Amino acid sequence: MKISVKGPIINDGDQWIYDWFGIPATSPTKVSNAINKAMLNQTTDITVLINSGGGSVFSASEIYTALKSFSGNVKVEIVGIAASAASVIAMAGTVVEMSPTAQLMIHNASTSAAGDYQVMDQTSDFLQNVNKSIMNAYTAKTGKDETYLKTMMDNETWMTAQQALEHGFIDKIMFEQEKSAAANTNHSDLVNGELPQEVLDKVRNQLLKDKSLNTMNSVTPPTPNKLENNKEDNPMDLDKLKNEHPDLYEKVKNIGFEEGQQAENTRIKEIEELATPGNENLVQAAKFENNSTAAELAVAIVKAEKAKGANFLQNVQKDAEPLNEVPGNQTVAGQEKDADVVASFVGIWKGGQ
């Protein structure tokens, strides 16, 4: 049975986002599911294909542990690159082979920190401890001592298949009968393909934001590419989100509250800007009873004003009817002038209809 370790090494919570974008990535659960399937099928041998630039050292440690715990034989084949955290996973193999065109790289762990000198000192201590943890995997495979490995990690050591074999990181070069044509690449700025955390957060929040928190019955992350060796659908409903990812649940809830509050403030403000004398009841109902938008209120106001205009026109016409009954030779100059004004006003209203 074959297990692929490709793309960045990521945590379980981000796997579905990479799957949605169709980006190869490997999380501990993805590997564990494959191992469990092998055990259910009573498979005694598994082959792990590695082509990864690294990623989370703690996820790599979990994958390393899972592979080392497998009761059968674990054959590792480095087919492209096993750099950084991915090199730790490679050390889990009972037998480790490497393509003559592949590369293996080991270096120190890195992170980012901000604060005073105490924070920096603590971060330095933390990273040095992580480096020692990584060395344990390298020591178990190569037999090299800590001082030797520390120098290699400090120098960010890139190895061809031949060099990796000489240092004891691998047991065999694949296709040994063919002459190696591997080139030693020294790109210390290799991009391992891992999505920036802000991109992951933005995608996750945007997808969840598109669902109304008040009416949402379930949230099912889009997964056009199913997790390898995991054919079951795993819908993410609110209860599951709350129980399995409490921090994310609280974050989503807070985002929904803040955006809802902001949207309501904007709605009230836009409605108040439409307030005009005579329409107080409509404005009040729109704000607190009908939950109307400003656009809906504007339509209601236009209809109300039109109705007022129609009523006014009818009243004017009704008031003008007695003038039509007055004989023309009995009208006086003032009455004729008044009639002209009324007629003119009526004409204006008719023209506006």
TrEMBL record:
Region of interest (Disordered), residue spans: 214-233
Keywords recorded for this protein, A-Z: Cytoplasm, Hydrolase, Protease, Serine protease
The UniProt record lists the keyword Zinc-finger: no
MF (Gene Ontology): ATP-dependent peptidase activity; ATPase binding; serine-type endopeptidase activity
GO BP: protein quality control for misfolded or incompletely synthesized proteins
UniProt cross-references to Pfam families, sorted A to Z: CLP_protease (PF00574)
Family according to the record: Belongs to the peptidase S14 family.
Protein's name according to its UniProt entry: ATP-dependent Clp protease proteolytic subunit
